[in-house]
Amino acid sequence: MAKSKAKTVDEYLLELPEDRRAAIAAVRQVILTNLPEGYHEMMQFGMIGYVVPLEHYPVTYNGQPLMFAALTSQKNYMSLYLMNIYSDEAVEKWFVERYKASGKRLDMGKACVRFKSLQDLPIDLVGEAIALTPVAHFIERYEASRKR
Questions:
Q1: Is 122 a member of any domain?
Q2: What stretch of H or E contains 103?
Q3: 69, β-bridge pairs
Q4: Strand locations in 6-75, DSSP E?
Q5: Which CATH number belongs to the domain containing residue 118 in this structure?
Q6: 101 within a domain of the structure (yes/no)
Q7: How many domains does the chain have?
């Protein structure tokens, strides 16, 4: 799927083929269930984004809400972006070790976990990773990264 022009998450989900819609909706539900207070769901950059709203933190490098996580369907796979994993080496190590211990094959870029089906993803670990980082801590890491 090319970058979506959907204005809402519901519109985005309706664009997806049924199998992708079911998988994305399941991951979305885990994210929403575990999302710490202060983050908001919105469409951002053609993906379902989980962000620190500009009302709470307006000083971002691009003037957009600070992205914490995102979920999208690509041409050959689905992607879950976990910026809190990317921004902390210790958390990334924890995540990679736990993912591999799940017995599932990890296909990961810097912040992007790629999966072809819901069965490829340790969904409980996704929930733990999302719940791990309160907004204030995420902002602290973001600000520290901008000072480098």
A1: yes
A2: none
A3: 50, 82
A4: 40-44, 47-52, 66-73
A5: 3.90.1150.200
A6: yes
A7: 1
Tokens 């269930």 sit on residue: 33
Q: Hey, what are 24's tokens?
A: 């994305």
Q: Count CB atoms within 10 A of the CB of residue 62.
A: 7
- Look up the pTM and report it: 0.93
Q: Is residue 56 part of a domain?
A: yes
Domain housing 70: 9-146
Q: Residue 108 carries which DSSP code?
A: B
Length of the chain, please?
Answer: 148
Dihedrals φ, ψ of 42, to 5°? -160, 165
Identify whether 93 is part of a domain: yes
- Per-position pLDDT tens, the chain of length 148: 457 888 999 999 999 999 999 999 999 999 999 999 999 999 999 999 999 999 999 988 899 999 999 999 999 999 999 999 988 889 999 999 999 999 999 999 988 999 999 999 999 999 999 999 999 999 998 888 878 6
Residue type, 134: P
DSSP state of 105: P
Tell me the C-alpha distance between 130 and 125, whole Å. 9
